[in-house]
């Protein structure tokens, strides 16, 4: 059985300070030892593998400043990671979770990106009858969530899987893939915990193996892509996933350099990017490596493909009256969410007919007017929230025949 793992190896703290471009891109960054490894995995919750295979950091790290560490308004440890728009997520999803009982009894929340468990902890605290299923492809994140949510162990199940395996994960627990959960939460993108783990290779501020896998068991690393993909494929990845206007120059530089020395570290790639991107362009728009690193990370983890598969499955899994909230942090993700949500709230009745055809009405209604943004108070407390786009839907109709629907586990 596949279990989540804990990193215990000590890493040497980097001897250099964070460069100014990095501080511009992460304005609340500072240099400190990470505490993410300490105590991880010491308390056990239920952790099960999904039947489908997953696609398959101590030391000096950039972490949030002191205002973003410590404890939240409820006196709970944030484990160095402040959940974005946590109160708004609770406000939007609680009506769906309290339909049966005010304390959440009989309700199921699927947290498709459990991460450090910050959102989950708030829901479990406020709804003592709630049942929570947490998914994550990153085993170290599951270790942290297991520790953080230990006091709710009898109400929490954690599963090591990608979120595009939602249907498989639910089936493994005895839930139907259609109309079986009351609420779903997605908090997309790379987490500050993953950026903090230097050896994972997500951050360009530190020299580390060129890895970028969210699940260390996944077969393809960023080094594999950089060293083996042809020039056209590299250009496509950089343009499509990084929206990098110098994609062709960067790809050409990569192909020339790897012919002499294969890429093994983030520092090698960052050095190449400084040489490939013209000096005037390096002076604006943040760190010159940010688009390339984003593109490689998305490609390594198939983030957009996973999202395209996961959202329909999540919408299908909601009961009538159930709700979904998605937090996206970059335009590529948000475009997918926006498009799929627009389709979900659209009528299937042909245009021009005077009445809605039975079984062709919208299956969902929007709970937000477009994408919601963090307010000034949230951004002051949590700088990561500046980029967030929140969208939410509620299910109002059954799938297919409006008089015939599946009944999932826990619902009568």
UniProtKB/TrEMBL annotation:
It catalyses: cytidine(1402) in 16S rRNA + S-adenosyl-L-methionine = N(4)-methylcytidine(1402) in 16S rRNA + S-adenosyl-L-homocysteine + H(+). It comes from the Bacteria. The keyword Transmembrane does not apply. One of its GO terms (biological process) is rRNA base methylation. It is found in: Cytoplasm. Gene3D superfamilies: Putative methyltransferase TM0872, insert domain, Vaccinia Virus protein VP39. One of its GO terms (cellular component) is cytoplasm. GO terms for molecular function: rRNA (cytosine-N4-)-methyltransferase activity. S-adenosyl-L-methionine binds at residues 117-119, 136, 163, 187, 194. Its EC number is 2.1.1.199. It is an enzyme of class 2 (transferase). Specifically methylates the N4 position of cytidine in position 1402 (C1402) of 16S rRNA. Belongs to the methyltransferase superfamily. RsmH family. This is Ribosomal RNA small subunit methyltransferase H.
């Amino acid at each position: 059985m596949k279990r989540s793992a804990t990193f215990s190896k000590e890493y040497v703290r980097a001897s250099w300070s964070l460069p100014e471009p990095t501080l511009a891109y992460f304005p609340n960054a500072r240099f400190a030892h990470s505490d993410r490894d300490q105590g991880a995995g010491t308390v056990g919750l239920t952790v099960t593998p999904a039947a489908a295979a997953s696609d398959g950091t101590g030391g000096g790290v950039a972490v949030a400043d002191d205002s973003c560490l410590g404890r939240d308004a409820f006196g709970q440890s944030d484990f160095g990671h402040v959940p974005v728009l946590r109160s708004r997520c609770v406000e939007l999803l609680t009506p769906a979770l309290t339909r049966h009982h005010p304390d959440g009894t009989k309700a199921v929340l699927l947290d498709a990106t459990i991460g450090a468990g910050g959102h989950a902890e708030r829901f479990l605290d406020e709804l003592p009858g709630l049942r929570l299923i947490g998914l994550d492809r990153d085993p170290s994140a599951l270790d942290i969530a297991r520790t953080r949510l230990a006091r709710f162990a009898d109400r929490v199940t954690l599963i090591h899987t990608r979120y595009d395996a939602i249907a498989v994960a639910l089936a493994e627990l005895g839930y139907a893939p259609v109309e079986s959960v009351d609420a779903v939460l997605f908090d997309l993108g790379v987490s500050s915990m993953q950026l903090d783990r230097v050896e994972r290779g997500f951050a360009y501020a530190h020299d580390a193996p060129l890895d970028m896998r969210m699940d260390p068991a996944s077969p393809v690393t960023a080094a594999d892509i950089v060293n083996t993909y042809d020039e056209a494929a590299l250009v496509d990845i950089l343009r499509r996933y990084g929206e990098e206007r110098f994609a062709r120059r960067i790809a050409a530089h990569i192909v020339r350099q790897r012919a002499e020395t294969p890429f093994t570290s983030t520092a090698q790639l960052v050095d190449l990017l400084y040489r490939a991107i013209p000096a005037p362009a390096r002076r604006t728009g943040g760190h010159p490596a940010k688009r390339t690193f984003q593109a490689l990370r998305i490609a390594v983890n198939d983030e957009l493909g996973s999202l395209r598969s996961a959202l329909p499955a999540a919408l299908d899994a909601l009961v009538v009256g159930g709700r979904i909230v998605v937090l996206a942090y970059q335009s590529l993700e948000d475009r997918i969410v926006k498009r799929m949500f627009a389709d979900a709230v659209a009528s299937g009745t042909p245009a021009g007919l005077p009445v809605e055809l039975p079984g062709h009405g919208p299956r969902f209604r929007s709970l937000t007017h477009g994408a919601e943004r963090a307010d000034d108070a949230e951004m002051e407390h949590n700088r990561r929230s500046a980029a967030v786009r929140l969208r939410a839907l509620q299910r109002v109709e059954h799938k297919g025949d409006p008089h015939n629907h599946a009944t999932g586990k826990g619902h009568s």
